[in-house]
Structure formats: structure tokens, C-alpha cells
Amino acid sequence: MSKVAVVFWSGTGNTEAMANAVADGAKAAGADVDVLGFGDLTADAAASYDALALGCPAMGAEQLEEGEVQPAWDDVRGALAGKKVALFGSYGWGDGEWLRTWEDEARESGAVIAADSLAVNGEPDDDGIADCEALGKALA
After folding, report:
1. Helix, coil or strand: residue 5
2. Cα separation of 102 and 100, whole Å?
3. Which residues of 45-60 are buried (b: 16+ CB within 10 A; e: fewer)?
4. CA–CA separation, 12 and 24 (whole Å)
5. Which fold has domain 3-139?
6. What is the DSSP string of 72-90?
7. What are 49-83's pLDDT values in tens digits?
8. Could you report the per-residue pLDDT of 110-128, keeping only the tens digit for each?
9. N or C, which end of the chain is more exposed by having fewer CB within 10 Å?
10. CA-CA distance, 96 to 82, in Å (whole number)?
11. Please, what sign has the CA dihedral across residues 25, 27, 30, 31?
């Protein structure tokens, strides 16, 4: 059984809904899943998981949230070599640049991208929830 962390930050609840669906998908695939906020993620914690799903909405000019997510990301990047990682988040504008940049940084850190990054416009609908569950299954 793989051990998966679903880590997220959400300003409006949209990315939180996505995180819960990712966790449901990973659990359905048989993984042992912990759902955490970025404030609970450290390099040591990341090292204890087989796989991580990381979620953050697009902020500002399509970037990661700077108060909690970016510092945690900077801390854990070095612990991701060889780990399965999947990225997700919601957005209200733009074209997903923040996820592409984040995925590039994850690859540069040695992470194994388990599935295409998932961006959902606004609140996830039934199709969005299904996509999140599929992401969790791919990660497990």
C-alpha cells in the first residue's frame, strides 16, 4: 500500500474541493492518504511519503500563493527526488502558466510527474471532480 500526501492551500474552497476528490481517488485505489495544509509540509514529512499531490490556485500573475505555499515548496523541493508527484489547482483567469512553471520546477527537483497537472476553472463541477479522482488514482 502506498502512502500518499494530498497537500493544498485554498483561498475560496475550490482547491480544497479538488484536494478532497484527489484524496478520495487515491483511497479508492488502495493508498493510505493524509490530507494536509502546506503549513504542515516539511522536507522531512515529504520524505516519509511515496507520493504527493500538491494543490494551489493561481494567484496574482499566475503564481503560487506567496505566504504559505511558496515557502513550503522551497523547503520540500530537495526532498522530491524520485517521488511521484501530481499538481493541481483552480483558476479564474489565465491559461495555466502557474501549473506549468510548478511542474517544471518539480521535474528539475527530480520528482517523477505521475499525471498531467490538473487545472479547473472555478469550482469543480462533476467532470472536474472525476478528473481529480482520476489524478488521485494515478498517484496511488
Report:
1. strand
2. 5
3. bbeebbbbbbbbbbbe
4. 20
5. Rossmann fold (3.40.50)
6. HHHHHGGG-TT-EEEEEEE
7. 999 999 999 998 889 999 999 999 999 999 999 99
8. 999 999 999 999 999 999 9
9. N
10. 25
11. positive
Question: Which residues make Cβ contacts (< 8 Å) with residue 30, sequence separation at least 6?
Answer: 1, 2, 140
Q: Three cell numbers at 125?
A: 463541477
pTM: 0.96
Q: Which grid coordinates belong to 57?
A: 490556485
Q: What is the CA radius of gyration of the chain?
A: 13
Closest CA to 5 of 86, 79, 110: 86
CB atoms within 10 A of CB 16: 18
